[in-house]
Amino acid sequence: MTGNSSGLDNATLALFQNADTSVVVSLIYAAVAVVNLLGNGLSMWLLLFRTSPKTPSIIFMINLTFTDLALGLALPFQIAYQLRGYDWGMGPGMCSSLTLVFYTNMYCSILTMTAIGIDRYLGIVKPMLFRETREKRSIAVISCFAMWGLVLSVLHPLMTTDLTFRVPELGITTCFDVLKWSMLPSMAAWAAFLFALVFVLFLFPFCVTTFCYVRVIGQLGKERTDKKRRATRLAFVVLLVFTLCFAPNNILLLAHAVLRLFYDKSLYMAYKLSLCLSCLNSCLDPFIYYFASKDFRQKLRQVLRLSNIHSLSSIDSVKLEHKESQYTAHCGYEGQERENSEV
After folding, report:
1. DSSP 178
2. Which of 12, 39, 117, 279 could form a disulfide with 286 if both were Cys (CB 3.0 to 4.6 A apart)?
């Protein structure tokens, strides 16, 4: 630590005065916001109004799209804050709301992608476990509420603390760039908070997701079918989001906290830049929908006019559904069960 009146280290102060970094980060956020709102706006319209029935995967995708759109709407405020030289002028309440949107997006996205992975696993590896479609939908809806409850309970300190911080030597008021020790009552509470973020909301879901997709690909065996190729691509995109978007931020958060607590050092600049990477997940999530849902793929191709196949007539559609039902019954699946396990 230094003798600065704010008590901040020189590395943090240097970041606040680095105009080039602010511009670069703002440009990244601007690009993410545009792609986010366009991609997820289209995805939400397709998922809500053009995709039926609402299978568990579709319910999870709607939940994920909602969190992504919330982030896209919050990014302009973050851009304005960056371009003003880290000077927040919209009050503590708005600062807490913006911060909460950032972190709920990250951790709800992680848990939702884990839920989609579990749904793929149950549909392909354990297809007889849940046979009733209505039961699966109810579980999906309850799971979404449980995700939000878990994430908001862990992030509760962010909602009850003034996250703004006055830096008198620079004449600015920051927003969630300086955490106050008073946010939590003790060192044990800080340890529990960091453990919940890094291990409960990131590492454990990452392990579960990896296990599910490895088993799905293994179950499909050596088949060279479109189904296996899509499953492999889905696994690749999901694991890419975890490793590119979520892992750096959570690893740096833990490392930065340990260094600050025990060695009086900082990784703040690296951690700040990793927040940009965490936002990229909202641009990659539509690819997850594309590979995870056959109905979403078909509707998207129709909207973008990428399909060379004319729409089936209603009679042909009925015949096709009847043939699929006969085939799935022969394989031990019900028609809806097959749709849920399609990737």
Report:
1. S
2. 39
